[in-house]
Amino acid sequence: LVFGEGVDENTLELAEEILLASDLGWELTELVLERFRKEFKLNRDSSWKVILVDILEELLPENKSWSSDAKPAVTMVVGVNGAGKTTTIARLSQAITRDGHSVLMGCADTYRAAASEQLALWGERLGIPVHTSIEGTDPGSVTFDAIKKAQTLKLDHVIIDTAGRLPTQKGLMDELSKVYRVAGKAMEGAPHRVLLVLDGTVGQNALPQAQQFMKFIPVTDIVVTKLDGTAKGGSVFAMARELNLPIRYIGVGEGADDLVVFDGRTFVEAIVG
Amino acid sequence: KLADRLGQTFKNLSGKGVLSESNISDAMREIRRALLEADVNFKVAKKFVAEVTEKATGERVLKSLSPGQQVVKIVNEQIVELLGSNAEKLELTGKPPHVILLLGLQGSGKTTTAARLAYLLQKKQNRRCMVVAADLQRPAAIDQLEVMAKKAGASFYCDRNEKDPAEVTRAAIHKAGLAYNDVVIVDTAGRLHVDSDLMEELERVKAVAKPDESLLVLDGLSGQDAVNVALEFNEQIGFSGAVLTKMDGDSRGGAALSFRAVTGKPIKFVGIGESVTGLEEFDPSRMAGRILG
Ligand SMILES: Nc1nc2c(ncn2[C@@H]2O[C@H](COP(=O)(O)OP(=O)(O)OP(=O)(O)O)[C@@H](O)[C@H]2O)c(=O)[nH]1
Ligand SMILES: Nc1nc2c(ncn2[C@@H]2O[C@H](COP(=O)(O)OP(=O)(O)OP(=O)(O)O)[C@@H](O)[C@H]2O)c(=O)[nH]1
Ligand SMILES: [Mg+2]
Ligand SMILES: [Mg+2]
After folding, report:
1. pLDDT at residue A3 above 60?
2. Are A42 and A74 contacting, i.e. CB atoms less than 8 angstroms apart?
3. Which atom, in ligand 2's list, is nearest to the CA of B135?
4. Which residues surround ligand 3, an ion (CB under 5 A)?
5. Average pLDDT in chain B
6. Which of B106, B146, B221 faces A202 most closely, judged by CB atoms?
7. B51 CA to centre of own chain
8. What's the angle, vertex CA A205, arms to CA A201 and CA A207, rounded to 5?
9. Sheet containing B183-188: which strands, arranged edge to edge?
10. Which of A62, A198, A248, B265 is a plausible cystine mate for A221, CB 3.0–4.6 Å?
11. Roughly what angle, to the nearest 10 degrees, separates helices B141-152 and A115-126?
């Protein structure tokens, strides 16, 4: 086996800048650079960027496709304030409708100003039924009613929107556990999917955020939003790896069609440039 | 904690002597790591570490502090100085109504800040505030601000039939003058600095508003991209300061240092909760402690 020369300082520095700038974080950057040095020596045919892309892609957990025979399939959407939950639900519902299936959006955010108006407006725009209730209603009961309604209407999906919350708000985190349990009472096995929506501009707080949410409810998938900006969303690597959570979708705009199925290679290529 | 890690780095140094360049470079590696983990932009961290290295090299090792504690002290002082050791207030001078324009990325906390700021100014400076719903694109944005304005006890202006936010702004300021509101706070739609149409729209809103203060509302959870946002908004639109939101979470808030380092503008307020009372004035020394972890 012929070893090539080691990677030059300039390229190493460039690689480090790319990785850090993407929000990959200090620790994972060190890990990737270590592998990069080794790969570079063994692999003189590939451009250094391709080597970097390969290493990053390997860090992502395998995305097995999700399907549910449950009818309705219940999806619960959670995340911190302003991450893009409500807009993601609108976009997901649009995609479901495009695929020829039926869906109900349930607004269990009974807390934030005009939250139900926001989801109701989306329902109106997209011609999708929405279940809301007045501000201050217990989110568990709205969740219960939304699932029951979807069952009555024999719909394929029901997606539950929840209020944004920071993991430091213990009371609100407990409330989330309660909403999760109530969903299971409304229908056995529900929710069949729990999407954690992550703002693509988030830094190193992504991992502790996800870890905290996982303590209260079993998150099953990740959605990363706002990747139409200049943020690269690199903080999801640590989170996806540590918690073995698949990244399901990414948000690339504010419109009803601006949600795409996550593709690891494309995501990583956008980081490396 | 950084102090503990530096303690490890320096455990061979006794209470005598001077901090040498090699002691410092090990310490600086730890400092750089702590800053990156706190979401300080990597270019800002690099420059910062160079400046601290200069300050720390040759310093007499004080008997009262361990060398690790001493370096932490220097780093802390440097961060406080960078963040603006005197917290800067709002500049509302000249003839009322004084206009404050809020701008920033989607979901950063502008609408909530508009109401919180009105509440704070009313309470602390006895101002009569009007909040203006100039976000005409987000579903139910007007409703959201209306509810929050009511909670804040501020007057509210909107025009549900108008399509141009600059026109809403112009009409609101005119009305505020007639109604003796001395502060007008304009909430705008979230936008990306790479969306040229929306940035051009913001320029027009600002031209009409002629604000005394333009505040970038920045999410406290932001990572490396905060510098791009700060630079681009400052270059394309121009602002006089920032509001750092969602700091009631456990994000280290390094975006504050990045923002200040690349724009030189002051952070004036910090969002610490969703209710109308959830806004306080920026405290540089508290922020420094948080960034250092
Ligand atoms: N550019 C861009 N904006 C987005 C994206 N996803 C959401 N947004 C915007 O981000 C803002 C917040 O979105 P919401 O859906 O209200 O977020 P949320 O998580 O429901 O917020 P809370 O309920 O207040 O916690 C809105 O202005 C959305 O239009 C995206 O992928 N790209
Ligand atoms: N915990 C906490 N939540 C906050 C804070 N500031 C804003 N929020 C929440 O963050 C979410 C987004 O706030 P908004 O005021 O709607 O943000 P925005 O910038 O107006 O969003 P767009 O208009 O869509 O760009 C809401 O759920 C707010 O209640 C804060 O300081 N702490
Ligand atoms: Mg929402
Ligand atoms: Mg808003």
Report:
1. no
2. no
3. 23
4. A 85-86
5. 92
6. B221
7. 23
8. 110
9. B155-157, B129-134, B183-188, B98-103, B213-219, B241-245, B267-271, B279-281
10. A248
11. 170
